[in-house]
Design a protein that fits this description.
The protein is an all-alpha fold and 96 residues long.
Length: 96
């Protein structure tokens, strides 16, 4: 695609308008547009530890799940757990 196409130039000209519209919409809803990047060492450690724990747990429990229930039970288990976790996700997103 040619970089100097009229469509691309039109999109580049619209970017500031879109950003201003987004900021106006957020202000209308009572929010200020900002992105905080102020994690402390404890926050960073907690997130890293959680990710490592999930990976470790998955690898150790995968063999157990295959031995006790098999792939079918594991697949249905993921669907059931996801179904019951969805309301929790929705509630948590409304709280923020």
């Amino acid at each position: 695609m040619n970089r100097s196409s009229p469509d691309l130039n039109k999109m580049e000209q619209q970017k500031p308008d879109v950003q201003a519209t987004d900021e106006d919409k957020l202000a209308e809803l009572g929010y200020k547009q900002d992105l905080n990047r102020d994690w402390s060492m404890l926050h960073n450690f907690g997130v890293s530890f959680s990710i490592i724990s999930v990976i470790t747990g998955l690898t150790t429990l995968f063999q157990y799940g295959l031995n006790t229930g098999g792939p079918g039970v594991m697949s249905v288990g993921w669907i059931v757990v996801s179904f019951f976790s969805a309301p929790t996700y929705n509630i948590e997103t409304d709280l923020n």
